[in-house]
Amino acid sequence: xxxxxxxxxxxxxxxxxxxxxxxxxxxxxxxxxxxxxxxxxxxxxxxxxxxxxxxxxxxxxxxxxxxxxxxxxxxxxxxxxxxxxxxxxxxxxxxxxxxxxxxxxxxxxxxxxxxxxxxxxxxxxxxxxxxxxxxxxxxxxxxxxxxxxxxxxxxx
Length: 156
Ligand SMILES: [Zn+2]
Prior knowledge:
Layout: H1 20-27, E1 32-35, E2 42-43, E3 59-62, E4 66-75, E5 87-94, E6 102-108, E7 118-128, E8 134-142, H2 144-147
Antiparallel strand pairs: 1-2, 1-3, 4-5, 4-7, 5-6, 7-8
């Protein structure tokens, strides 16, 4: 009997009808959000039609790969073996977007962040899923280059 395979990452489903475009864009190195071709507003989270004007056929358009932390929490209680604790969950306001374009990030460990901490999005190549689709995950990290200028002490 062979030893069990090493614990690997839990891959996201990249072929879901609503979010496939997000992962296709990530595989090309772009952080993108659905955008209405009629009124131009962002549709986030993804939906088949614009929530503002009702138009169909929204398209994926790149947004800034930078943002600021809106809120965060540190998870100390492990609920899944592939998500070792502690880890820090952040809600990110994407730079240059109106309210409503917020993304969730997962940073390993207890990360020193607060509202306003600048973050930047990188892309982690996780290989391919069982069907051969590329799996590239946008991952947020503290933008250490700009973190010194961030506001401090507002949420402590
Ligand atoms: Zn619209």
